[in-house]
Amino acid sequence: MTEKAWMLLLEGAWVTLWISGLASAMGLVIGLAIALLRTARIPVVDQILAVYVSLARATPLVTLVLFLFLAAPTLGLSLDRYAVAIVALTINTSAFNAEIWRTAFLNFPRDQQEAALASGMTPATMFANIMLPQMIITSLPGLVNEMTFLLKSSPAIAIIGLVDLTRVTNRISAVTYEPLPPILAAALIYMVIISVLLKLQSLAEKMAGRLAM
Amino acid sequence: MSEWSIVWEARSTILSGLWLTCWLFTASILGAFMLGCLMLYLLERGGALAWLLRGFINTMRALPFLVLAYLLYYGLSQLGLRMNAVTAGLLAMIIYHGAYFAEILRGSRLVLPPGSIEAAQAHGFMPGSIFLHIILPQLLLRTRPLIGNQLIYALKDTSFLAIITVQELTAAANAVQATYFIPMPAFVVVILLYWAITACLELAVSKAGIFGKARGFENV
Amino acid sequence: MSDLPAVEIRKLSKSFSGVEVLRDIDLTVNKGEVVSVLGSSGSGKSTMLRCINWLEEPDSGSVFIAGQRIGYNSDKQRPMTNREMAATRARTGMVFQSFNLWPHLTVSQNVAISPIKVKGMPKAQARDLATQLLEKVGLGDKAEVYPFTLSGGQKQRVAIARALAMSPEVMLFDEPTSALDPERVGEVLQVMRDLSGEGYTMVVVTHEMEFARMVSDQVVFLDKGLIIEKAPPEIFFTNPASERVRRFLDRQD
To answer: So what's the ipTM on this one?
Structure first.
């Protein structure tokens, strides 16, 4: 593998990282918003969100990316490839995150809520000061796990021609006629990135474990 | 509504994609499941092979599915091993999800109380027989929800094969829209099909819970 | 300071899925009084306590905290908003059987957070208050640790300090020693005894006969959702009016 090939790989890795990272960050917030809206149990809104979550979880990312890329222009939306990729990844991960947040909300200990209400907190004050900080800690392992899953499905964006860490191997082998080395090198880079996330996850699990005591 | 009737006209393309997706999915999860059980058995026996398998499973867990598919389809051709896209895709599905099944079962194996195994040993069971009749059934009952999730991941991973030119369901939607320029209806239909398959899988997995419930496993 | 009773319960009734757990309860707790509530399990005593700060919403009847009705805005003739509810609850302090400390906050933060977030007390002042209250319950050295490092008795003393931090009109204790190891009960009862000595108004649901006898001004006995005896401890424990209380007391010894 030439130095040029490594540079191309790193560029691909960068595309993978920033698109997944941005989608993850937005998915965290949107997922929380969906979860909170759902716990409010507003008729119709609740059903719509439930269907959204169910559909978004069942749709393969490849299908979703391609769908948005092809269908957006017919709705008069002009999105570039990167925007399509980010929107698709965000739709996907926000649905999974919504379920993680919702579980944390529904499993929040009732008696801690009572203690907060008894001391005169309004539901909003209680949510911000007592529930949310703990929900973040207990959800963190699941949320980081979901980031790992998102990163592993991110090569789906190759289908609309974005050159991420997986697809860049095609670019390299088109010149060298040797596909094996770039694929193995890309695999190695994925393993490094994901092992960092797994490390983060086990740290998060330790934190959550401390809270449970 | 004419766009929708075009999808109906083009139904044979979509149905053949659906057929390929279902076929690939079924064949690969059966293969992956057996591979996963085999790997678990080899892990159980320990030794150097178990150590290698652990490394292999962890590698698979740190890789996107598409990278493995690329490796088999493009990478191995450099070594003179040429497969068509469907074969490479099927093989990738089996290997990749086999590793995940093995990991799910291994996680449950670690927390399996040793009592029932000791009882089987005391009864004079052979190790292979203990694995097949005592350990594996309990692990399957315990890991039902996780296996259910993995099935859905496997279904969704078949769509990656569109990228290595397999004409499965997503590729079929793309073919229909490219011929008739109707991206919206073509993809809506295909997404609803994925949704329906997922719903059936979820229903089947939840129905399978009765086996565990009848044996008092659902609250462990 | 007005002379209104700290707590006044009028005609309180409550059922859970068709089963009546409280029937026409009337009870007045005057300022500075310690009222012990006794009764076998399932008698409705915890439900009555939880109705005082509306954690449990009664089916009918009313509760007044120092003259202010809880749960219902009498001026505007409508149920209270969340904000009004919170402001009224802030005038009571509650100590739970299972402590219910907030595990993500340090001991000091557990005590200080409600004054800061509910009363808008400046942080430094709330911290000083927490220090002072933790000293009072004998845990001055534990201010910066997290709750999971404490014993049950220590947790409950923190919970008491947390409730005191809001300077409530009345302290509600819901079986505060029932979840404790026997050797930890004494330290919590001692703190409660000190509070009564300082003139705090307290309603205590408890199984501790000794505490009820020594510390309370009134003892109330509930049976099947009814108050069947209400008397000063000297009378309650030596010469109760009802046969049911006599049997209850016999079983305790």
So the answer is: 0.90
